[in-house]
Amino acid sequence: MTTAIETRKLTKWYGRSRGIRDVDLVVEAGQIFGFLGPNGAGKSTTIRLLLDLIRPTSGSARVLGLDVHRDRLAIDRRVSYVPGEVSLYDELTGRQLLTYLGNLQGSVDAAYRDRLIERLELDPTKRIKSLSRGNKQKVGLVAAFMIRPDLLILDEPTAGLDPFIQLEFERLCEETREEGKTVFISSHQLPEVEHLCDRVGIIRDGRLLAVESIADLKDRALRRLEIDFGGPVPAEAFANLPGVRDLTVDDGILRCTVMGSLDALVKAAARFEVRNLRSIDTSLEEIFMAYYGAGDGAAEEVAGHAAA
Amino acid sequence: MLLRSVFAKQVRDLRWPTFWVSLGMGGMTGYFALLFPTYSKLFDLNDMLAKMGPAAKLLGASMGDASTLVGFLHIELFSMILPALMVAFTAGMASGFTAGEESRGTIDVLLSFPISRRRLILEKTLALVLGCTAAAVVVWILAMAGAAVSASALPADHLAAALVMLVLLGLAFGALALAISVATGNRGAAIGVAVALMVAMYLVDGLATVVDGLGVVRPLSLFRYYMGNDPLRNGLSLADAAVLGAVAAVFLVASVVLFERRDLAV
Question: What pTM was estimated for this model as a whole?
Answer without folding.
Answer: 0.85
